[in-house]
């Protein structure tokens, strides 16, 4: 009896497992069906959009060509009118002169015939007057009429090779690409930003520049955020937990036109942006409080972050926008706690780099040194936890593996603390005005 019940339980267990496997299999198949539907929609939607673009482009092209041809025709017709008018004008003047001569000759003929056939008594006087008049008119003087070879004979010179050239250019004009040459590859969450990476997918395509655009998913228009030769870009001023759409295209080597856009993809960051603390007299902040400018105030001290928003495993980046006069006490770095009254992060429970490139750990200068920071320099801090002994809320020893990078150089060291730190503050200090720092 027990054996039968055990067999039934085993069969029920196998049945339940088969049912769950069938459900999981169905979910996977349904997910793949949704993927196929999205792929089909992408093909159909992009084909419809491409047809619309082609029809509109060639319609615009035909209208432009017709306008250009009409303008050229009008120009040539006006040229014919000008040549005709200028060539006819001297002929009209010659015609008037000849017609005047014909009229004069008619009058002379009538007068001569009257003198010859008139009354004998008055004949001598009429003949005398007629003879004088005939001598005065100069009957042997005839105006010159140009020969046909000396007057214009208009014609149109039309080169039939234009049609051949246009035909060849038109037949080569435009292409239809089934896939864009570049695609978005990766989105990396950053505090208040997204690091966007893309790659070339067409082996035959030689890119010269890339163009990245983005928009909020609720917006209707994309806007340019980067144009250049790099294959990644940090997009800043991103609101946390908001979806953004990105797309990228490329321009081939030696070409002027841009390639088709990549398939738009969505990205977001859940990390709140880094912000400087407001209210410190010696620093002016941007509206988003991620840029700090050392102003002309004589007040000097450390400007800290608003909160301990740097977590181990992330990359903290300082970008020097403008520089002022350097000082050995200047500092950029991270610390365990905010501490008022200090003029630099070159102290205990802090690691930092000075503007001259010196690296300090708990206030002690390291032997290794980085290049001095300049306008446009980027300084990054990367940390990972290496625990030493027990760590609890009551305290304990643990070690952070710190990497500071600047101007293609880096230093790596271990930072030992006497307490666990889930997050850290960042800060900066500058003795002289003019320094402007962006943090992300």
Which helices and strands, and how do they pair?
Layout: H1 2-117, H2 120-137, H3 161-172, E1 182-190, E2 193-200, E3 207-216, E4 223-228, E5 232-236, E6 244-252, E7 265-267, E8 283-285, E9 291-294, E10 303-304, E11 315-322, E12 331-335, E13 350-353, E14 358-361, E15 364-369, E16 378-387, E17 398-406, E18 409-417, E19 425-429, E20 436-439
Antiparallel strand pairs: 1-2, 2-5, 3-4, 3-6, 6-7, 8-9, 9-20, 10-19, 11-16, 11-20, 12-13, 12-19, 13-14, 14-15, 16-17, 17-18
Give a concise summary.
By secondary structure, the protein is an alpha+beta fold. The chain is 33% helix and 28% strand.
Distance between the termini: 71 Å
Structural class: alpha+beta
Q: Stretches where pLDDT falls below 50 for ≥5 residues?
A: 391-396
* Secondary-structure element string: HHHEEEEEEEEEEEEEEEEEEEE
Secondary structure tally, helices: 3
Number of strands: 20
Structural shape: elongated
Assess the beta-strand content as a share of residues. Answer: 25-35%
The helix content is: 25-40%
Mind describing the biggest β-sheet?
7 strands, antiparallel
What value does the average pLDDT take? 88
